[in-house]
Amino acid sequence: MPEPAPALKRQSMTTRLLLAPGILWMALFLVLPILMIVYVSFWTQTTFNISPTPTLASWKAFFGSDTYTGALWTTLRLWLIILASTFIVGYPTALFVGLLVKSKTVSTVLLVICVIPFWTSFLIRVLAWRPMLGKEGAINIVLMKLHIISQPIEVLLFTELSVVIGMTQIYCVFMVGPIAFMLARIDRNIIEAARDLGAGFGRIFWKIIFPLSLPGVVVGAIFVSVMVLGEFATSAALSGRKVNLLGNIIVTQVGSLKWAMASVVGVILTVVMGIVIAGFLRIVDLKREL
Amino acid sequence: MQPGPEDEVVVETAVFRIEGLTRRYGDLLALDNATLEAGANEYISFLGPSGSGKTTLLRVIAGFETPDAGRVIFQGRDVTNVPAHERGIGFVFQNFALFPHLTVMKNVAFGLTHGKSGLSAADIDRRCREMIDMVGLSGMEDRGVDQISGGQRQRVALARTLTLRPRLVLLDEPLGALDANLRGRMRNELRAIRERLGVTFLHVTGSESEALAMGDRVVVLDRGRLIQTGTPAEVYDHPASPDVAHFLNRFNMFDGKLSGGSFTGAFGTAPAPVATRSPRDVYAVRYDRMRVLPLSARTDRPTLKARYIASEYLGSSIMSFFDAEGHVVEVEHHLSLGAPETYETRQEYLLSWNPEKAIVFGREVQ
Question: Which residues of chain B does A187 touch, with a Cβ-Cβ cutoff of 8 Å?
Answer without folding.
Answer: 95, 97
